[in-house]
């Protein structure tokens, strides 16, 4: 295991058992051999230069960061790396090169991580599957014809395929957790603001729904290690929580005495029977880890209104994003509509017509949902649900039209992730098992700001049902 995990690689580099130069070269070789279309841009020479610097630091006996020499990948969306092309998955931004790095990228590099490239995303991260007219479709490493999920599908596929041990994603309706489930990896949606985004010119752009950046990794330890580096308050981030959890320490804590609520029909979604079975078995194993599991449900049935609320927020968010990109970088997606997918244009234009009253009504529905989720945590320490209602589906088939004989109630009806982006509760998807050889995830949700409970529960499940053997390498 240690040979393919971020924590194991970092330990081996610190002891001199592995060379940063060799680690990065092996990583680049794997990407060149078959990257599953996970990468949009690979920065081989920059990565090699950083690896050489990392090797000299080891030889000189310098203080080494917790991710020293570890290759990482960054989603090609809002986490800029200075001097590296950032396309947002759009032909309209093929030549855009930011002159500054996002805070989370700076923190990863300051901790010794070596960025090897930017990973594929649907255009402007606007779908739950990863394909676009610029780079094409990312393939699921477990089954190339199936979706890798999205919108952080490139990052999830890169980790699942062993191209990198660690990658970053962003999540505004499940965009870290969806591909984590589809690709059989760990994906964490931290409390919004926990990992600073510091968007400009509008730092409040992602208030409805709440967007958060988080890691994708093969192990809970790796995800926690990344969060210890990425998380922490930042003066330019208005949503920074006042506390700083100890994520890595949380992996060693016990779930003995945890009250665990299991909600198999969270988000009002019908769930495939095989998914339900695998997730139920995974949840039951938490009892062996000392928890008490009870079936529960939310006192909330306005799921159509809730989905309308998040769609309203997403439309306004994309209109705001387009304006910010024009203001900050002089590139207007609407002025380049021949290079932008119609569904993105529709979201931007619809968002521009939304009224303050519509936004208020969306927040009123969101408030009801928030109270319902809060009520669950008056009885339970964590809530667990399926992450997706279906296993990863054939990409050529498009979104599922029926699930367990029922029609999903809207475009998000196959997801059980998006309500948490309305309520701001931290969550993660971790592997629950396989259905016909492809992964299924279980979603772990904790009270607001209790990110450590998510990590502790995820680590307990990993100890009970290790998934590292799922991977070819």
Automatic annotation (TrEMBL):
<dbReference type="InterPro" id="IPR020556">
    <property type="entry name" value="Amidase_CS"/>
</dbReference>
<feature type="region of interest" description="Disordered">
    <location>
        <begin position="134"/>
        <end position="153"/>
    </location>
</feature>
<dbReference type="InterPro" id="IPR036928">
    <property type="entry name" value="AS_sf"/>
</dbReference>
<dbReference type="InterPro" id="IPR023631">
    <property type="entry name" value="Amidase_dom"/>
</dbReference>
<dbReference type="InterPro" id="IPR000120">
    <property type="entry name" value="Amidase"/>
</dbReference>
<protein>
    <submittedName>
        <fullName>Amidase</fullName>
    </submittedName>
</protein>
<dbReference type="Pfam" id="PF01425">
    <property type="entry name" value="Amidase"/>
</dbReference>
<dbReference type="GO" id="GO:0003824">
    <property type="term" value="F:catalytic activity"/>
</dbReference>
<feature type="domain" description="Amidase">
    <location>
        <begin position="22"/>
        <end position="454"/>
    </location>
</feature>
């Amino acid at each position: 295991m240690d040979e393919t995990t971020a924590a194991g690689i970092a330990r081996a580099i610190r002891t001199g058992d592995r060379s940063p130069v060799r680690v990065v070269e092996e990583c680049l070789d794997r990407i060149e051999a078959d990257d599953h279309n996970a990468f949009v841009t690979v920065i081989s020479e920059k990565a090699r230069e950083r690896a050489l610097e990392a090797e000299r630091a080891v030889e000189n006996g310098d203080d080494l960061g917790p991710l020293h020499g570890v290759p990482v990948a960054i989603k090609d969306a809002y986490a800029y790396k200075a001097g590296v092309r950032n396309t947002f998955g759009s032909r309209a931004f093929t030549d855009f090169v930011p002159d500054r790095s996002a805070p989370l990228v700076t923190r990863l590099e300051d901790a010794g991580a070596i960025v090897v490239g930017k990973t594929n995303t649907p255009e402007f991260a606007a779908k739950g599957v990863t394909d676009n007219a610029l780079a094409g479709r990312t393939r699921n490493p477990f089954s190339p014809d199936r979706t890798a999920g999205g919108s952080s599908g490139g990052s999830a596929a890169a980790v699942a395929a062993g191209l990198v041990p660690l990658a970053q994603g962003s999540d505004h309706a499940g965009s870290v957790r969806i591909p984590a489930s589809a690709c059989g990896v760990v994906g964490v949606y931290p409390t919004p603001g926990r990992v600073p985004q510091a968007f400009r010119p509008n730092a409040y752009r992602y208030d409805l729904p709440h967007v958060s950046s988080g890691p994708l990794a093969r192990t809970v330890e790796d995800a926690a290690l990344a969060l210890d580096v990425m998380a922490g308050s930042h003066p330019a981030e208005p949503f920074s929580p006042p506390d700083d959890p100890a994520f890595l320490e949380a992996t060693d804590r016990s779930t003995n005495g945890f009250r665990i609520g299991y909600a198999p029909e969270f988000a009002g979604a019908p769930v495939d029977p095989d998914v339900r079975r695998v997730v139920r078995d995974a949840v039951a194993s938490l009892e062996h880890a000392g928890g008490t599991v009870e079936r529960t449900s939310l006192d909330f049935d306005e799921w159509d209104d809730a989905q309308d609320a998040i769609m309203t927020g997403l439309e306004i968010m994309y209109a705001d994003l387009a304006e910010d990109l024009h203001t900050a970088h002089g590139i207007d997606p609407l002025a380049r509509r021949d290079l932008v997918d119609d569904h993105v244009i529709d979201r931007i234009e619809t968002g521009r017509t939304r009224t303050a009253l519509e936004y208020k009504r969306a927040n009123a529905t969101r408030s009801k949902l928030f109270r319902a989720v809060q009520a669950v945590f008056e009885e339970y320490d964590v809530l667990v649900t399926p992450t997706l209602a279906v296993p990863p589906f054939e990409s050529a088939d498009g979104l599922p039209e029926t699930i367990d004989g029922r029609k999903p109630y809207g475009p998000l009806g196959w997801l059980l992730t998006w309500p948490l982006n309305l309520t701001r509760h931290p969550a993660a998807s971790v592997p629950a098992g396989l259905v016909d050889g492809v992964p299924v995830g279980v979603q772990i949700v904790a009270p607001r700001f209790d990110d450590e409970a998510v990590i502790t529960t995820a680590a307990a499940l990993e100890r009970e049902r290790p998934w590292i053997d799922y991977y070819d390498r």
